[in-house]
Structure formats: C-alpha cells, structure tokens
Specification:
Elements: E1 2-3, E2 5-10, E3 23-30, E4 38-41, E5 44-47, H1 58-70, H2 76-87, H3 94-100, E6 104-109, E7 115-119, E8 128-132, H4 139-147, H5 153-167, H6 174-191, E9 204-207, E10 215-219, H7 225-234, E11 238-240
Antiparallel strand pairs: 1-4, 2-3, 3-6, 4-5, 6-7, 8-10, 8-11, 9-10
C-alpha cells in the first residue's frame, strides 16, 4: 500500500471532537517528489519523511493505511480517532481523510461522526509552494496548548471565522483564498504561537498542519513560484511545487 501526505489550508482544529460547533476544513492530498512518501508492505511501515511533528498528518495517515490494508470496508476515520485517543495524541479526523481521499477537498461535519467530503477544483492549487523549515516539534506540545483554549470566547470566535471562510472558498478567487488562509493562520497565532521562523515571501505562508511540524506552504502568484523556490533553496530551505494527487491513492 502506498499513501501520500496531506496539507491543511484552513479550518484546522475544527476537526477536533472538542469543537462542539459545525466543522469545516480544506486540505489536499500531496505526493512526494513524484513518489509516495509512505509505503506499507507486509505490515511494515516506511516513510521518506523523518522526524516528529512534520505537520503532514503522517501518523494518522499511516494508521488509516494499515486499517485499510486489512479491511477495505473499514470505517478508517472512526478507527483512527479511537487509536488517537488510546495513544494520547487526541488528534482530529482531517489528517487521515486528507491522505486517503484524493485531491483538494472541503471536509464538513456537524457531529464528528458523519463527515461530508466535497471535492474541489480551484485555482489555489497554482498558488502553492511547499517548503520545510527543517525544524520539528511534537504535535501534542502545540495541541495541548490549543485544546486548553476550546470553549473560550476568543478561540471560538477565531475558529468560527475560519470555519466560515473554509465553507465558502469555492466562491473565491485564488488571491482571495490565499488571503483567508493566511489571515486564519495569523488569527490562531495571536492566541497560540504555532509558527516557525520563515522568510517573508510571496503573499504569506502558513504551516501545513496545526503547528507541530516544520512543513508549510507559501502562497505565491503562479508565475513567481519558481523564483520563490530558487530563493528558498539558496537560503537552504527545501521547497517545491506540490503535486496534488487526483484519483484513488491507496492500492
């Protein structure tokens, strides 16, 4: 079995069962240098992405892959949530869906049980540059800080705004979509410092996950992406145009 990773664009944290309101997340399944970064064979897992807290949803995607490897009809979302709870990481449901289901998508739910998957075709995919700060930190470190904020007025206000923006991205231009992603990330960062040191390039950036890892995306005008990648590479920062995968991703 081969699986991709996922990048989270907006709405992250609303996939947590602690969130008692409507959830909406936009994310995408992404390949790795033309190959799949996670391989499962004979019950053994290998990954080309090393380190903890990459922000790419790897642990949840691996677990979902293992579940599907045994039973293609399994409810992999519920099973991974159960596994996350037992592991103590208390993750949400966007990671496993983001890696298992193809392409760019809007994920919505009112109860964290029934999750609607809406495939999206959007020009935002031409604005993305995937990069790696090279820094790592356990996702749970950031997660515990954020979970302390659930139910507070400020956090609820920020997340409701991000959910509302995620829900209407299909109505936006590429520039508008990029801007709400950047602003949503900045609003969260004002409550919990999730960011990592990054050069100020393009329209702005956000990390791919909730803040545990060092992988992120810059939002860049399509014709400027190669120039931005060259600039990042000269600074010693790995960067590429992400390969957003379409079609069935697991074998």
């Amino acid at each position: 079995m081969k699986l991709p990773v996922r990048i989270d664009l907006i709405g992250g944290w609303s996939d947590q069962p602690l969130w008692k309101h409507r959830a909406a997340v936009v994310n995408a399944a992404v390949g790795w240098d033309g190959q799949y970064p996670i391989t499962i064979k004979d019950g053994k897992v290998t990954s080309l992405v090393e380190g903890i807290g990459t922000g790419l949803g790897i642990s949840s995607i691996i677990q979902a892959g293992l579940i599907l490897d045994k039973n293609r009809n399994a409810d992999y979302v519920a099973d991974v949530l159960d596994w996350e709870e037992k592991q103590g990481t208390r993750g949400g449901w966007q990671d496993q869906i983001g890696g298992i289901e193809p392409g760019l998508k809007l994920l919505t739910s009112n109860d964290h049980k029934k999750i609607e998957i809406h495939s999206i075709e959007h020009p935002i995919t031409d604005y993305l540059v995937l990069f790696d700060t090279g820094l790592r930190r356990p996702a749970k470190t950031i997660g515990d800080k954020v979970r302390e904020l659930f139910g507070t007025r400020k956090f609820d206000s920020v997340l409701k705004r991000n959910v509302a923006d995620a829900s209407r991205v299909t109505e936006m231009t590429g520039e508008e979509f990029a801007q709400v992603c950047i602003e949503g990330w900045e609003r969260l960062n004002r409550l919990v410092d999730m960011d990592m040191p990054c050069p100020n390039l393009g329209m702005g950036h956000k990390l791919c996950g909730a803040g545990g890892g060092g992988y992120g995306v810059y939002f860049v005008e399509p014709l400027d992406r190669e120039e931005v990648i060259m600039g990042l590479t000269q600074l010693g920062i790995w960067a590429k145009i992400p390969n957003i995968l379409k079609g069935v991703l697991y074998e």
